[in-house]
């Protein structure tokens, strides 16, 4: 019976995370073909910059909730805190758009995207309840339903209106519909949820600050090059950059989601057998690196023709850059895995320093080299490689110290 439940969890989680990791890819394909490369650039910029701002709404994410072994905080506290952080996210986004002097069109696109991110942030806490109760299958089903419904509605609205702002409302509607008719229903089987803003809610926000800040820094790191393209380039370059970078973004997101099913077991293993725990993490990182090398080689030969056919654009002169970008997606995914492991080990402050150093280097390199599409792609690879090296080295020394301490 236990194996059957575990198999369902793995299968549905895999389906859900695959769809969730790839739906932005399919939306970008559709927009590029129907609305053009400039619209694709506008959509991808708003989508990924609001993903940075979504760190405010997520505020530490599901992992802090799932690894709360001592049950210091109830589900009410986690969900209530997300309502507060989502409100703050709206305010910050509004101010960001005003300061950036965006057009009305871009401003509206940002507001729609951030509304979607707010609903997503609340849903993540319901996913946490499901995962704690060993029901990742429900999480996978929810992700699948949201993705399919989003894609169908987006296509219908965009075909009728040729307006990506209106079409993007499908993200908001789909997540709200599945939230009310599925997520709440499943989560209510395990706990009665009451929105309760108490002292504990604010204490939780204080304790979650460290994972929030390095999640924010991590997302800033991923999008530094996009900032410089926006202000030095144009929507066309942004569109092409998003197309070539899409496989890397998908790989990085997929590696993060595939890590989730291991989390519960790793939490328990870290408590009882640190040596075995670190051995599994080591194998995971090696497997990710080898997979990245293999995918980079494959993408060099067939990546550009496939993307060119799918998106109906010519990127044949960027074959080598594409293979580097695919490899950088694995670097980014590995950094996410290391970061989550360090959260599990409650190594918070060191990550802030690691991300700050990575961002400082990323801004410097982007300032010096981002000019056109090719330089933007090379810069993105160098930044991700540098971040991976920093995290890997620091993680190595932390593991060495932890192993030595456990032997005393």
TrEMBL record:
Domain of life: Bacteria
Transmembrane residue ranges: 12-31, 43-61, 82-102, 163-182, 203-225, 237-259, 280-302, 322-345, 352-370, 376-399
Keywords of the record: Membrane, Transmembrane, Transmembrane helix
Protein name: O-antigen/teichoic acid export membrane protein
Species this chain originates from: Lactovum miscens
């Amino acid at each position: 019976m236990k194996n059957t439940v575990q198999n369902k969890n793995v299968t549905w989680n895999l389906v859900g995370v695959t769809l969730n990791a790839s739906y932005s890819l399919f939306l970008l394909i559709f927009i590029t073909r129907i609305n053009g490369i400039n619209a694709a650039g506008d959509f991808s910029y708003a989508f990924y910059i609001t993903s940075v701002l979504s760190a405010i709404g997520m505020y530490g994410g599901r992992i802090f909730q799932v690894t709360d072994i001592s049950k210091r905080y109830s589900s009410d506290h986690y969900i209530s805190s997300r309502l507060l952080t989502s409100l703050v996210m709206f305010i910050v986004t509004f101010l960001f758009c005003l300061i950036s002097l965006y057009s009305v069109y871009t401003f509206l696109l940002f507001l729609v995207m951030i509304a979607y991110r707010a609903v997503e942030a609340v849903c993540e806490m319901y996913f946490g309840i499901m995962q704690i109760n060993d029901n990742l299958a429900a999480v996978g089903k929810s992700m699948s339903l949201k993705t399919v419904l989003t894609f169908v509605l987006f296509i219908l609205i965009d075909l009728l209106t040729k307006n990506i702002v209106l079409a993007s409302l499908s993200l908001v509607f789909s997540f709200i519909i599945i939230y009310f008719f599925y997520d709440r229903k499943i989560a209510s089987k395990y706990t009665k949820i009451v929105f309760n803003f108490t002292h504990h809610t604010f204490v939780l926000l204080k304790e979650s600050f460290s994972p929030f800040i390095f999640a924010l820094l991590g997302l800033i790191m991923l999008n530094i090059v996009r900032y410089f393209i926006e202000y030095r380039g144009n929507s066309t370059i942004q569109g092409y950059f998003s197309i070539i970078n899409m496989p890397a973004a998908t790989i990085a997101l997929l590696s993060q989601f595939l890590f989730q099913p291991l989390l519960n077991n790793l939490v328990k293993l870290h408590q009882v057998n640190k040596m075995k725990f670190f051995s599994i993490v080591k194998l995971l990182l090696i497997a990710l690196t080898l997979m990245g090398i293999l995918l980079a080689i494959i993408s060099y030969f067939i990546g550009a023709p496939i993307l060119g056919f799918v998106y109906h654009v010519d990127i044949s002169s960027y074959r080598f850059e594409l293979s580097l970008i695919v490899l950088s997606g694995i670097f980014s995914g590995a950094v996410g895995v290391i970061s989550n492991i360090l959260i599990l080990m409650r190594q918070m402050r060191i990550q802030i320093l690691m991300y700050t150093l990575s961002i400082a280097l990323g801004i410097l390199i982007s300032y010096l080299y981002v000019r056109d599409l090719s330089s933007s792609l090379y810069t993105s690879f160098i930044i991700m490689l540098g971040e991976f090296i920093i995290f890997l080295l620091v993680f190595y020394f932390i593991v060495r110290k932890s192993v030595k301490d456990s032997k005393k």
